[in-house]
């Protein structure tokens, strides 16, 4: 497989993933990916993408009550 942007050689490596959502940011430091040795573009495996999606879904579900409840909670 060659890079879609520069035709560079792809190597199995890891790449960080940053996700910005309303109210929080998620950072995965080392997600397995094919990374272009020339321009650094990362291509993620569908399997890795769905793992990350599952994490986002879990956070979304458990953070809804948090957002609905106005702080403070210590009582
Ligand atoms: Zn490239």
SSE layout and pairing:
Elements: E1 10-21, E2 24-36, E3 42-44, H1 46-68
Antiparallel strand pairs: 1-2, 2-3
The structure holds zinc ion (ZN).
- Ligands, ions, cofactors: zinc ion
Unreliable spans are none
DSSP summary, beta strand count: 3
Q: Which percent range describes the beta-strand content? A: 35-45%
> Per the principal axes of the C-alpha atoms, what is the gross shape?
elongated
The biggest beta sheet is recorded as: 3 strands, antiparallel
CA-CA gap between termini: 58 Å
Give the name of the CATH architecture: Roll
What oligomeric state do the depicted chains represent? single chain
Q: Order of SSEs, N→C?
A: EEEH
Structural class: alpha+beta
| Overall number of structural domains | 1
Number of helices: 1
């Amino acid at each position: 497989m060659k890079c879609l942007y520069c035709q560079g050689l792809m190597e199995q490596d890891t790449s960080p993933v940053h996700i910005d959502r309303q109210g929080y940011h998620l950072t995965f430091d080392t997600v397995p990916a094919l990374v272009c040795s020339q321009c650094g573009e990362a291509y993620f495996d569908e399997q890795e993408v769905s793992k990350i999606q599952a994490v986002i879904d879990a956070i979304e579900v458990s953070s809804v009550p948090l957002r609905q409840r106005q702080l403070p909670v210590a009582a």
